[in-house]
Amino acid sequence: MANPPHFIGHRKSWNSWNTSTLKDALRPSQTAIEDVFIRKFVTGTWHALVCSEIIIKRQHNTIRIAALIRQAITPRKMYFLIGYTEELLSYWMQCPVTLELQTVGDRKDVVFKYI
């Protein structure tokens, strides 16, 4: 987190673009579109709760999504949203999707390293 929050989309967005290693195929562009869809879906589902950028990790046939979430809802609602998000994304992406979430007490607790 060496970049301030308003620069992350400009300086670190390339981390998830064209992550496919297939050559001469349409997969890199599909991966970029899927990543945009996943980020918008998670941001909309976890409305006003996401405190950091959403990191998408693809390993073989599995998609892992990591983020920092604010502790503003009850654990019961959080477990429902986790299951809801994983189930719908797994159905749409046609592969297993796992959420790896960490919670923080307040948005101000997230530390950004300014250089």
TrEMBL record:
> Main localization of the protein?
mitochondrion
List keywords of the entry alphabetically: Mitochondrion, Ribonucleoprotein, Ribosomal protein, Transit peptide
Q: Where is this gene product found?
A: Mitochondrion
One protein family per Pfam: MRP-S24
| Family note | Belongs to the universal ribosomal protein uS3 family.
What is the protein name for this chain?
Answer: Small ribosomal subunit protein uS3m
Naturally occurring in which organism (per UniProt): Drosophila suzukii
- Gene of origin? mRpS24
